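Need C-alpha coordinates for this chain, all 581 residues.
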Amino acid sequence: MRLSASRTLAVVRMTIRSSALAHVALAIPVGAVAGLCVTAMTWLAELAHVAFYGIAFDERLSAQTRVSGFAALAALCGGGLVIGLVDVWRQRHGARHTVDPVEANALHGGRLSLRDGLIVVAQTLLSNGVGASVGLEAGYAQIGSALASRVGVWLQFRRQDLRTFVGCGAAGAMAAAFGAPLTGAFYAFELIIGAYSLSNAAPVLAAAVAGRLTVDVLGGAPYSIEAPHVPPFGVAQYVALVGLGLVSALLGVAAMRAAALVERAFRASPLPTWARPVLGGALVAGLATLTPQMLGAGHGALALDIPLALGAWALTSLIGLKLAACLISLASGFRGGLFFASLYIGALVGKLYALAAAAALPWLHLDSTACLFAGMATLGAAIVGGPLTMAFLVLESSGNVLVAGPVLAGCIACQLTVRAIFGYSFSTWRLHLRGEDIAGAQDVGWVRTILVAGLMDAKPRTMPADATLAAFRLAHPIGASHHVVLVDRDGRYKGLVSTAEAYGSGSESDPVSALARLTGVTLKAENNIRQALDAFEATESEILAVTDAHEIVVGTLGEAYTARRYAAAVDRAAKGVLGGA
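Here are the C-alpha coordinates for all 581 residues:
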Protein backbone atom coordinates (compact mmCIF):
# COMPACT_ATOMS: atom_id res chain seq x y z
CA MET A 1 0.00 0.00 0.00
CA ARG A 2 2.83 2.37 0.91
CA LEU A 3 4.63 1.52 -2.33
CA SER A 4 1.47 2.23 -4.34
CA ALA A 5 1.06 5.64 -2.67
CA SER A 6 4.70 6.43 -3.40
CA ARG A 7 4.25 5.53 -7.07
CA THR A 8 1.08 7.62 -7.27
CA LEU A 9 2.92 10.60 -5.79
CA ALA A 10 5.74 10.11 -8.29
CA VAL A 11 3.25 10.07 -11.18
CA VAL A 12 1.57 13.26 -9.88
CA ARG A 13 4.92 15.00 -9.58
CA MET A 14 5.98 13.97 -13.08
CA THR A 15 2.66 15.09 -14.56
CA ILE A 16 2.87 18.52 -12.95
CA ARG A 17 6.51 18.98 -13.89
CA SER A 18 5.88 18.15 -17.54
CA SER A 19 2.71 20.19 -18.07
CA ALA A 20 2.62 23.94 -18.66
CA LEU A 21 -1.10 24.00 -17.85
CA ALA A 22 -0.40 22.24 -14.55
CA HIS A 23 2.15 24.96 -13.71
CA VAL A 24 -0.50 27.61 -14.27
CA ALA A 25 -3.09 25.68 -12.24
CA LEU A 26 -0.59 25.36 -9.40
CA ALA A 27 0.43 29.03 -9.58
CA ILE A 28 -3.13 30.17 -8.88
CA PRO A 29 -3.39 28.76 -5.32
CA VAL A 30 0.20 29.90 -4.65
CA GLY A 31 -0.78 33.45 -5.58
CA ALA A 32 -3.95 33.19 -3.48
CA VAL A 33 -2.03 31.98 -0.43
CA ALA A 34 0.45 34.83 -0.92
CA GLY A 35 -2.52 37.22 -0.90
CA LEU A 36 -3.74 35.69 2.35
CA CYS A 37 -0.30 36.17 3.89
CA VAL A 38 -0.23 39.81 2.76
CA THR A 39 -3.60 40.47 4.37
CA ALA A 40 -2.64 38.70 7.60
CA MET A 41 0.67 40.57 7.87
CA THR A 42 -1.04 43.89 7.23
CA TRP A 43 -3.63 43.26 9.94
CA LEU A 44 -0.95 42.23 12.45
CA ALA A 45 1.10 45.36 11.73
CA GLU A 46 -1.96 47.59 12.12
CA LEU A 47 -2.87 45.87 15.39
CA ALA A 48 0.65 46.59 16.61
CA HIS A 49 0.21 50.27 15.70
CA VAL A 50 -3.05 50.31 17.63
CA ALA A 51 -1.41 48.69 20.66
CA PHE A 52 1.76 50.81 20.70
CA TYR A 53 0.44 54.20 19.57
CA GLY A 54 -3.23 54.10 20.56
CA ILE A 55 -4.55 54.96 17.09
CA ALA A 56 -7.74 53.57 15.56
CA PHE A 57 -7.48 50.34 13.57
CA ASP A 58 -8.58 51.95 10.31
CA GLU A 59 -6.06 54.84 10.58
CA ARG A 60 -2.55 54.97 9.20
CA LEU A 61 0.31 55.62 11.61
CA SER A 62 2.20 57.99 9.28
CA ALA A 63 -0.98 60.02 8.64
CA GLN A 64 -1.35 61.11 12.28
CA THR A 65 -1.02 64.79 13.12
CA ARG A 66 1.04 63.86 16.19
CA VAL A 67 2.01 60.84 18.23
CA SER A 68 3.18 60.52 21.80
CA GLY A 69 6.93 60.95 21.97
CA PHE A 70 7.11 58.56 24.91
CA ALA A 71 5.09 55.93 23.01
CA ALA A 72 7.36 56.24 19.96
CA LEU A 73 10.52 56.02 22.07
CA ALA A 74 9.28 53.05 24.08
CA ALA A 75 8.00 51.13 21.05
CA LEU A 76 11.00 51.73 18.82
CA CYS A 77 13.65 51.16 21.50
CA GLY A 78 11.83 48.10 22.83
CA GLY A 79 11.43 46.66 19.34
CA GLY A 80 15.06 47.44 18.57
CA LEU A 81 16.16 45.65 21.73
CA VAL A 82 14.24 42.51 20.74
CA ILE A 83 15.68 42.55 17.22
CA GLY A 84 19.20 43.13 18.57
CA LEU A 85 18.98 40.30 21.09
CA VAL A 86 17.64 37.92 18.45
CA ASP A 87 20.54 38.84 16.15
CA VAL A 88 23.05 38.16 18.93
CA TRP A 89 21.39 34.81 19.67
CA ARG A 90 21.50 33.82 15.99
CA GLN A 91 25.17 34.80 15.71
CA ARG A 92 26.11 32.77 18.78
CA HIS A 93 24.33 29.72 17.38
CA GLY A 94 26.02 30.07 13.99
CA ALA A 95 22.82 30.86 12.10
CA ARG A 96 23.46 31.71 8.46
CA HIS A 97 22.12 34.89 6.91
CA THR A 98 18.61 34.65 5.52
CA VAL A 99 18.47 34.34 1.73
CA ASP A 100 16.03 36.66 -0.04
CA PRO A 101 14.21 35.80 -3.30
CA VAL A 102 16.67 37.72 -5.50
CA GLU A 103 19.67 35.90 -4.02
CA ALA A 104 17.85 32.57 -4.07
CA ASN A 105 17.07 32.81 -7.77
CA ALA A 106 20.48 34.19 -8.73
CA LEU A 107 22.67 31.84 -6.72
CA HIS A 108 20.65 28.90 -5.37
CA GLY A 109 18.40 27.86 -8.22
CA GLY A 110 15.26 29.12 -6.47
CA ARG A 111 15.73 27.25 -3.20
CA LEU A 112 14.42 29.24 -0.23
CA SER A 113 14.05 28.14 3.37
CA LEU A 114 10.49 28.46 4.67
CA ARG A 115 11.85 28.75 8.21
CA ASP A 116 14.09 31.64 7.16
CA GLY A 117 11.10 33.18 5.41
CA LEU A 118 9.10 33.09 8.62
CA ILE A 119 12.02 34.68 10.45
CA VAL A 120 12.09 37.53 7.93
CA VAL A 121 8.32 37.93 8.27
CA ALA A 122 8.59 38.13 12.05
CA GLN A 123 11.45 40.65 11.89
CA THR A 124 9.63 42.76 9.30
CA LEU A 125 6.38 42.70 11.26
CA LEU A 126 8.16 43.71 14.45
CA SER A 127 10.10 46.48 12.70
CA ASN A 128 7.07 47.99 10.99
CA GLY A 129 4.81 47.30 13.95
CA VAL A 130 6.88 49.39 16.34
CA GLY A 131 7.07 52.20 13.78
CA ALA A 132 10.49 51.83 12.16
CA SER A 133 10.66 53.60 8.80
CA VAL A 134 10.47 50.43 6.70
CA GLY A 135 7.73 48.73 4.72
CA LEU A 136 6.24 45.26 4.89
CA GLU A 137 6.85 44.51 1.21
CA ALA A 138 10.12 42.67 1.90
CA GLY A 139 8.22 40.30 4.18
CA TYR A 140 5.39 39.99 1.64
CA ALA A 141 7.75 38.93 -1.15
CA GLN A 142 9.78 36.70 1.18
CA ILE A 143 6.88 34.61 2.47
CA GLY A 144 5.22 34.34 -0.95
CA SER A 145 8.48 33.21 -2.55
CA ALA A 146 9.38 30.84 0.29
CA LEU A 147 6.01 29.09 0.16
CA ALA A 148 6.28 28.72 -3.62
CA SER A 149 9.83 27.40 -3.31
CA ARG A 150 8.75 24.81 -0.74
CA VAL A 151 6.00 23.56 -3.08
CA GLY A 152 8.39 23.47 -6.04
CA VAL A 153 11.06 21.56 -4.12
CA TRP A 154 8.47 19.04 -2.93
CA LEU A 155 7.37 18.52 -6.53
CA GLN A 156 11.03 18.21 -7.58
CA PHE A 157 10.83 21.00 -10.15
CA ARG A 158 13.73 21.53 -12.51
CA ARG A 159 15.99 24.47 -11.72
CA GLN A 160 14.41 26.96 -14.12
CA ASP A 161 10.86 25.89 -13.25
CA LEU A 162 11.63 26.37 -9.56
CA ARG A 163 13.00 29.86 -10.22
CA THR A 164 9.83 30.74 -12.12
CA PHE A 165 7.69 29.38 -9.32
CA VAL A 166 9.53 31.56 -6.79
CA GLY A 167 8.62 34.48 -9.05
CA CYS A 168 4.98 33.36 -8.92
CA GLY A 169 4.97 33.62 -5.13
CA ALA A 170 6.52 37.09 -5.21
CA ALA A 171 4.13 38.21 -7.97
CA GLY A 172 1.09 37.10 -5.99
CA ALA A 173 2.33 38.90 -2.90
CA MET A 174 3.19 42.20 -4.58
CA ALA A 175 0.01 42.20 -6.68
CA ALA A 176 -1.93 41.71 -3.47
CA ALA A 177 0.00 44.45 -1.69
CA PHE A 178 -0.76 47.12 -4.31
CA GLY A 179 -3.94 45.73 -5.85
CA ALA A 180 -2.04 45.75 -9.15
CA PRO A 181 -1.55 42.43 -10.97
CA LEU A 182 0.65 43.83 -13.75
CA THR A 183 2.88 45.46 -11.16
CA GLY A 184 3.17 42.19 -9.29
CA ALA A 185 3.90 40.23 -12.46
CA PHE A 186 6.61 42.57 -13.69
CA TYR A 187 8.09 42.78 -10.20
CA ALA A 188 8.64 39.04 -10.59
CA PHE A 189 9.94 39.28 -14.16
CA GLU A 190 12.38 42.14 -13.57
CA LEU A 191 13.49 41.68 -9.97
CA ILE A 192 12.97 38.02 -8.99
CA ILE A 193 13.32 35.94 -12.17
CA GLY A 194 15.48 38.38 -14.11
CA ALA A 195 13.85 37.60 -17.46
CA TYR A 196 10.54 37.68 -19.27
CA SER A 197 9.58 34.86 -21.65
CA LEU A 198 6.49 33.08 -22.91
CA SER A 199 7.32 30.10 -20.73
CA ASN A 200 7.12 32.06 -17.46
CA ALA A 201 4.46 34.63 -18.41
CA ALA A 202 1.36 32.48 -17.89
CA PRO A 203 2.06 31.12 -14.38
CA VAL A 204 3.40 34.45 -13.08
CA LEU A 205 0.42 36.42 -14.39
CA ALA A 206 -1.99 33.79 -13.05
CA ALA A 207 -0.42 34.05 -9.59
CA ALA A 208 -0.54 37.85 -9.70
CA VAL A 209 -4.22 37.92 -10.62
CA ALA A 210 -5.01 35.34 -7.92
CA GLY A 211 -3.20 37.44 -5.29
CA ARG A 212 -5.09 40.57 -6.34
CA LEU A 213 -8.49 38.85 -6.27
CA THR A 214 -7.76 37.35 -2.87
CA VAL A 215 -7.11 40.69 -1.17
CA ASP A 216 -10.13 42.18 -2.92
CA VAL A 217 -12.29 39.53 -1.26
CA LEU A 218 -10.62 40.17 2.10
CA GLY A 219 -11.06 43.93 2.11
CA GLY A 220 -8.69 45.51 -0.42
CA ALA A 221 -4.99 46.01 -1.01
CA PRO A 222 -3.02 47.58 1.86
CA TYR A 223 -0.90 49.83 -0.38
CA SER A 224 -3.46 51.05 -2.93
CA ILE A 225 -2.64 54.51 -4.33
CA GLU A 226 -5.18 57.09 -5.47
CA ALA A 227 -4.47 60.40 -7.17
CA PRO A 228 -6.26 63.00 -9.31
CA HIS A 229 -6.61 62.73 -13.08
CA VAL A 230 -3.61 63.69 -15.22
CA PRO A 231 -4.06 65.85 -18.39
CA PRO A 232 -2.57 64.86 -21.78
CA PHE A 233 1.17 65.26 -22.39
CA GLY A 234 3.12 67.07 -25.07
CA VAL A 235 6.72 66.67 -26.22
CA ALA A 236 7.97 69.27 -23.74
CA GLN A 237 6.32 67.44 -20.85
CA TYR A 238 7.95 64.18 -21.97
CA VAL A 239 11.36 65.83 -21.91
CA ALA A 240 10.67 67.39 -18.52
CA LEU A 241 9.74 64.04 -16.97
CA VAL A 242 12.86 62.45 -18.43
CA GLY A 243 14.75 65.21 -16.62
CA LEU A 244 12.92 64.22 -13.44
CA GLY A 245 14.13 60.67 -14.04
CA LEU A 246 17.73 61.90 -14.08
CA VAL A 247 17.17 63.80 -10.82
CA SER A 248 15.72 60.66 -9.25
CA ALA A 249 18.69 58.62 -10.46
CA LEU A 250 21.14 60.95 -8.74
CA LEU A 251 19.09 60.98 -5.54
CA GLY A 252 18.73 57.20 -5.60
CA VAL A 253 22.47 56.64 -6.02
CA ALA A 254 23.18 59.12 -3.23
CA ALA A 255 20.73 57.29 -0.97
CA MET A 256 22.33 53.90 -1.68
CA ARG A 257 25.81 55.30 -1.07
CA ALA A 258 24.58 56.89 2.14
CA ALA A 259 23.04 53.57 3.25
CA ALA A 260 26.48 51.94 3.14
CA LEU A 261 28.05 54.82 5.06
CA VAL A 262 25.38 54.83 7.78
CA GLU A 263 25.61 51.06 8.16
CA ARG A 264 29.40 51.31 8.41
CA ALA A 265 29.04 54.00 11.06
CA PHE A 266 26.76 51.79 13.18
CA ARG A 267 29.16 48.85 12.89
CA ALA A 268 32.15 51.02 13.76
CA SER A 269 30.46 52.37 16.87
CA PRO A 270 31.53 50.98 20.28
CA LEU A 271 27.96 49.81 20.92
CA PRO A 272 27.36 46.05 21.18
CA THR A 273 25.32 44.45 18.41
CA TRP A 274 22.15 44.25 20.47
CA ALA A 275 22.26 47.99 21.27
CA ARG A 276 22.48 49.26 17.69
CA PRO A 277 18.77 48.83 16.89
CA VAL A 278 17.96 50.48 20.22
CA LEU A 279 19.97 53.54 19.20
CA GLY A 280 18.38 53.47 15.75
CA GLY A 281 14.93 53.30 17.32
CA ALA A 282 15.70 56.26 19.56
CA LEU A 283 16.87 58.33 16.57
CA VAL A 284 13.76 57.49 14.55
CA ALA A 285 11.58 58.31 17.56
CA GLY A 286 13.29 61.69 17.70
CA LEU A 287 12.47 62.30 14.04
CA ALA A 288 8.87 61.24 14.69
CA THR A 289 8.50 64.07 17.21
CA LEU A 290 9.02 66.46 14.28
CA THR A 291 6.38 64.68 12.19
CA PRO A 292 4.77 61.23 12.46
CA GLN A 293 5.27 60.86 8.70
CA MET A 294 8.66 59.40 9.56
CA LEU A 295 7.01 56.31 11.04
CA GLY A 296 6.21 53.19 9.04
CA ALA A 297 6.41 52.83 5.28
CA GLY A 298 4.61 56.11 4.62
CA HIS A 299 1.36 54.97 2.99
CA GLY A 300 -0.76 57.21 5.17
CA ALA A 301 1.66 60.10 4.70
CA LEU A 302 1.45 59.74 0.92
CA ALA A 303 -2.34 59.80 0.95
CA LEU A 304 -2.18 62.84 3.26
CA ASP A 305 0.38 64.80 1.22
CA ILE A 306 -0.93 64.18 -2.34
CA PRO A 307 -3.71 66.81 -2.18
CA LEU A 308 -1.76 69.31 -0.03
CA ALA A 309 -0.08 72.36 -1.57
CA LEU A 310 3.24 71.99 0.25
CA GLY A 311 5.97 74.58 -0.15
CA ALA A 312 9.52 73.91 -1.30
CA TRP A 313 10.95 74.07 2.23
CA ALA A 314 8.35 71.63 3.61
CA LEU A 315 8.95 69.19 0.74
CA THR A 316 12.73 69.38 1.08
CA SER A 317 12.50 68.82 4.83
CA LEU A 318 10.19 65.82 4.45
CA ILE A 319 12.44 64.26 1.81
CA GLY A 320 15.55 64.64 3.96
CA LEU A 321 13.87 63.47 7.16
CA LYS A 322 12.25 60.42 5.54
CA LEU A 323 15.48 59.38 3.86
CA ALA A 324 17.30 59.71 7.17
CA ALA A 325 14.63 57.71 9.00
CA CYS A 326 14.75 54.90 6.40
CA LEU A 327 18.54 54.67 6.32
CA ILE A 328 18.84 54.75 10.12
CA SER A 329 16.17 52.05 10.47
CA LEU A 330 17.84 49.67 8.02
CA ALA A 331 21.44 50.39 9.01
CA SER A 332 20.77 49.90 12.71
CA GLY A 333 19.24 46.46 12.20
CA PHE A 334 15.50 46.84 11.63
CA ARG A 335 14.19 44.60 8.84
CA GLY A 336 11.95 45.71 6.02
CA GLY A 337 11.74 47.09 2.51
CA LEU A 338 12.20 50.44 0.82
CA PHE A 339 9.69 49.80 -1.96
CA PHE A 340 6.88 51.96 -0.61
CA ALA A 341 9.20 54.40 1.15
CA SER A 342 10.85 55.08 -2.22
CA LEU A 343 7.40 55.72 -3.72
CA TYR A 344 6.57 58.19 -0.95
CA ILE A 345 9.89 60.03 -1.19
CA GLY A 346 9.64 59.99 -4.98
CA ALA A 347 6.20 61.59 -4.82
CA LEU A 348 7.63 64.40 -2.70
CA VAL A 349 10.54 64.79 -5.14
CA GLY A 350 8.03 64.99 -7.99
CA LYS A 351 6.04 67.73 -6.25
CA LEU A 352 9.24 69.66 -5.55
CA TYR A 353 10.29 69.27 -9.20
CA ALA A 354 6.90 70.64 -10.30
CA LEU A 355 7.39 73.71 -8.10
CA ALA A 356 10.86 74.28 -9.54
CA ALA A 357 9.55 73.85 -13.11
CA ALA A 358 6.69 76.29 -12.45
CA ALA A 359 9.15 78.89 -11.15
CA ALA A 360 11.79 78.43 -13.85
CA LEU A 361 9.63 77.48 -16.86
CA PRO A 362 6.08 78.73 -16.26
CA TRP A 363 5.19 78.37 -19.97
CA LEU A 364 5.70 74.58 -19.66
CA HIS A 365 2.53 74.14 -17.57
CA LEU A 366 3.93 70.93 -16.09
CA ASP A 367 1.18 69.15 -14.17
CA SER A 368 2.07 68.53 -10.51
CA THR A 369 0.18 65.23 -10.38
CA ALA A 370 2.10 63.97 -13.41
CA CYS A 371 5.34 64.93 -11.66
CA LEU A 372 4.13 63.18 -8.52
CA PHE A 373 3.53 59.94 -10.42
CA ALA A 374 6.78 60.26 -12.34
CA GLY A 375 8.72 60.95 -9.15
CA MET A 376 7.22 57.88 -7.49
CA ALA A 377 8.07 55.66 -10.44
CA THR A 378 11.54 56.98 -11.22
CA LEU A 379 12.87 56.98 -7.67
CA GLY A 380 11.35 53.52 -7.22
CA ALA A 381 13.15 52.40 -10.38
CA ALA A 382 16.41 53.88 -9.07
CA ILE A 383 16.29 52.26 -5.65
CA VAL A 384 14.25 49.09 -6.15
CA GLY A 385 14.96 48.53 -9.86
CA GLY A 386 12.43 47.52 -12.49
CA PRO A 387 11.31 50.38 -14.74
CA LEU A 388 8.39 48.41 -16.18
CA THR A 389 7.27 47.45 -12.68
CA MET A 390 7.08 51.09 -11.69
CA ALA A 391 5.45 52.20 -14.93
CA PHE A 392 2.72 49.58 -14.50
CA LEU A 393 2.26 50.61 -10.88
CA VAL A 394 1.56 54.18 -12.01
CA LEU A 395 -0.71 52.96 -14.80
CA GLU A 396 -2.76 50.74 -12.49
CA SER A 397 -2.85 53.37 -9.73
CA SER A 398 -3.89 56.26 -11.92
CA GLY A 399 -6.07 54.37 -14.39
CA ASN A 400 -4.69 56.76 -17.02
CA VAL A 401 -3.02 55.13 -20.02
CA LEU A 402 -1.63 58.48 -21.20
CA VAL A 403 0.57 58.83 -18.12
CA ALA A 404 2.30 55.48 -18.63
CA GLY A 405 4.34 56.57 -21.66
CA PRO A 406 6.16 59.59 -20.22
CA VAL A 407 6.57 57.86 -16.86
CA LEU A 408 8.14 54.85 -18.58
CA ALA A 409 10.48 57.17 -20.49
CA GLY A 410 11.55 58.75 -17.21
CA CYS A 411 12.03 55.32 -15.59
CA ILE A 412 14.22 54.09 -18.45
CA ALA A 413 16.34 57.25 -18.35
CA CYS A 414 16.65 56.84 -14.59
CA GLN A 415 17.61 53.15 -14.81
CA LEU A 416 20.22 53.77 -17.50
CA THR A 417 21.76 56.57 -15.45
CA VAL A 418 21.90 54.44 -12.31
CA ARG A 419 23.56 51.60 -14.20
CA ALA A 420 26.07 53.96 -15.77
CA ILE A 421 27.17 55.70 -12.57
CA PHE A 422 26.45 53.03 -9.94
CA GLY A 423 25.47 49.67 -11.40
CA TYR A 424 23.13 48.27 -8.73
CA SER A 425 19.65 48.55 -7.32
CA PHE A 426 19.26 48.66 -3.54
CA SER A 427 18.54 44.93 -3.23
CA THR A 428 21.61 43.88 -5.21
CA TRP A 429 23.73 46.64 -3.65
CA ARG A 430 23.11 45.20 -0.19
CA LEU A 431 24.15 41.78 -1.49
CA HIS A 432 27.25 43.37 -2.99
CA LEU A 433 28.16 44.87 0.39
CA ARG A 434 27.95 41.35 1.81
CA GLY A 435 30.38 40.04 -0.82
CA GLU A 436 27.94 38.66 -3.43
CA ASP A 437 28.91 40.12 -6.81
CA ILE A 438 25.60 39.85 -8.65
CA ALA A 439 23.84 42.53 -10.68
CA GLY A 440 20.34 41.04 -10.53
CA ALA A 441 18.27 37.89 -10.28
CA GLN A 442 19.62 36.37 -13.49
CA ASP A 443 20.63 32.77 -12.82
CA VAL A 444 24.37 32.66 -12.17
CA GLY A 445 24.30 30.04 -9.43
CA TRP A 446 25.06 27.26 -11.88
CA VAL A 447 28.48 28.87 -12.46
CA ARG A 448 29.42 28.04 -8.87
CA THR A 449 28.54 24.37 -9.33
CA ILE A 450 30.99 23.83 -12.22
CA LEU A 451 34.32 23.53 -10.44
CA VAL A 452 37.85 23.12 -11.73
CA ALA A 453 38.00 19.80 -9.85
CA GLY A 454 35.46 18.34 -12.26
CA LEU A 455 37.05 19.82 -15.38
CA MET A 456 40.77 19.23 -14.92
CA ASP A 457 42.99 16.44 -16.24
CA ALA A 458 43.91 14.65 -13.04
CA LYS A 459 46.94 12.96 -14.64
CA PRO A 460 49.09 15.82 -15.88
CA ARG A 461 52.46 15.35 -17.58
CA THR A 462 55.14 16.45 -15.12
CA MET A 463 58.92 16.79 -15.05
CA PRO A 464 61.40 17.51 -12.24
CA ALA A 465 62.33 21.18 -12.27
CA ASP A 466 66.06 20.37 -11.89
CA ALA A 467 66.14 18.18 -15.05
CA THR A 468 68.11 19.10 -18.17
CA LEU A 469 66.66 19.73 -21.60
CA ALA A 470 68.11 16.42 -22.74
CA ALA A 471 66.20 14.55 -20.04
CA PHE A 472 63.07 16.52 -20.86
CA ARG A 473 63.27 15.68 -24.58
CA LEU A 474 63.81 12.02 -23.80
CA ALA A 475 60.83 11.86 -21.44
CA HIS A 476 58.47 13.96 -23.56
CA PRO A 477 58.78 13.41 -27.32
CA ILE A 478 57.58 16.23 -29.52
CA GLY A 479 53.87 15.86 -30.28
CA ALA A 480 53.17 13.82 -27.13
CA SER A 481 51.95 16.91 -25.22
CA HIS A 482 51.88 20.66 -25.72
CA HIS A 483 52.82 21.63 -22.15
CA VAL A 484 54.55 19.94 -19.24
CA VAL A 485 54.32 20.94 -15.57
CA LEU A 486 57.58 21.33 -13.65
CA VAL A 487 57.60 20.13 -10.04
CA ASP A 488 60.14 19.88 -7.24
CA ARG A 489 60.98 16.70 -5.37
CA ASP A 490 57.84 17.02 -3.22
CA GLY A 491 55.53 17.57 -6.21
CA ARG A 492 55.18 21.31 -5.70
CA TYR A 493 54.51 23.48 -8.71
CA LYS A 494 57.50 25.22 -10.33
CA GLY A 495 56.09 26.41 -13.66
CA LEU A 496 54.94 25.39 -17.11
CA VAL A 497 57.14 24.53 -20.09
CA SER A 498 56.03 24.51 -23.73
CA THR A 499 57.21 21.30 -25.46
CA ALA A 500 57.74 23.13 -28.74
CA GLU A 501 59.92 25.72 -27.01
CA ALA A 502 61.92 23.00 -25.24
CA TYR A 503 62.78 21.45 -28.62
CA GLY A 504 63.38 24.74 -30.36
CA SER A 505 65.86 26.51 -28.07
CA GLY A 506 68.75 25.82 -25.73
CA SER A 507 71.40 23.11 -25.55
CA GLU A 508 70.79 19.69 -24.07
CA SER A 509 72.80 20.51 -20.94
CA ASP A 510 70.70 23.58 -20.10
CA PRO A 511 68.22 23.29 -17.19
CA VAL A 512 64.63 22.97 -18.28
CA SER A 513 63.61 25.40 -15.51
CA ALA A 514 65.10 28.23 -17.57
CA LEU A 515 62.11 27.91 -19.90
CA ALA A 516 59.51 27.83 -17.12
CA ARG A 517 56.74 30.42 -17.19
CA LEU A 518 53.75 31.27 -15.00
CA THR A 519 55.75 30.08 -12.02
CA GLY A 520 53.44 31.80 -9.54
CA VAL A 521 50.10 31.31 -11.29
CA THR A 522 47.87 28.27 -10.68
CA LEU A 523 44.23 27.34 -10.31
CA LYS A 524 42.68 25.67 -7.30
CA ALA A 525 40.36 22.69 -7.49
CA GLU A 526 37.63 24.66 -5.70
CA ASN A 527 37.70 27.53 -8.23
CA ASN A 528 34.59 27.75 -10.40
CA ILE A 529 34.52 27.86 -14.19
CA ARG A 530 34.11 31.65 -14.32
CA GLN A 531 37.17 32.15 -12.14
CA ALA A 532 39.11 29.77 -14.36
CA LEU A 533 38.17 31.69 -17.52
CA ASP A 534 39.15 34.95 -15.84
CA ALA A 535 42.55 33.44 -14.99
CA PHE A 536 43.06 32.31 -18.59
CA GLU A 537 42.23 35.80 -19.82
CA ALA A 538 44.54 37.49 -17.31
CA THR A 539 47.52 35.21 -18.06
CA GLU A 540 46.86 34.81 -21.80
CA SER A 541 47.75 31.14 -21.39
CA GLU A 542 46.05 28.19 -23.04
CA ILE A 543 46.72 25.89 -20.09
CA LEU A 544 47.14 26.30 -16.32
CA ALA A 545 48.23 23.95 -13.57
CA VAL A 546 45.89 23.06 -10.72
CA THR A 547 47.38 22.84 -7.22
CA ASP A 548 46.16 22.10 -3.71
CA ALA A 549 46.61 24.25 -0.61
CA HIS A 550 50.26 23.16 -0.36
CA GLU A 551 51.00 24.01 -4.03
CA ILE A 552 51.26 20.32 -4.93
CA VAL A 553 50.19 19.74 -8.52
CA VAL A 554 46.93 17.80 -8.82
CA GLY A 555 46.04 18.43 -12.47
CA THR A 556 45.95 20.76 -15.45
CA LEU A 557 43.15 22.56 -17.23
CA GLY A 558 42.99 23.84 -20.82
CA GLU A 559 41.32 27.06 -21.87
CA ALA A 560 39.62 25.65 -24.99
CA TYR A 561 37.92 22.81 -23.10
CA THR A 562 36.86 25.19 -20.31
CA ALA A 563 35.38 27.66 -22.79
CA ARG A 564 33.41 24.87 -24.52
CA ARG A 565 31.97 23.67 -21.23
CA TYR A 566 31.05 27.23 -20.24
CA ALA A 567 29.36 27.90 -23.59
CA ALA A 568 27.36 24.69 -23.29
CA ALA A 569 26.24 25.60 -19.77
CA VAL A 570 25.23 29.11 -20.89
CA ASP A 571 23.25 27.60 -23.75
CA ARG A 572 21.38 25.29 -21.38
CA ALA A 573 20.60 28.19 -19.05
CA ALA A 574 19.34 30.32 -21.95
CA LYS A 575 17.09 27.51 -23.17
CA GLY A 576 15.67 27.16 -19.67
CA VAL A 577 14.82 30.87 -19.53
CA LEU A 578 13.28 30.93 -23.00
CA GLY A 579 11.40 27.68 -22.57
CA GLY A 580 13.52 25.66 -25.01
CA ALA A 581 14.13 21.94 -24.79
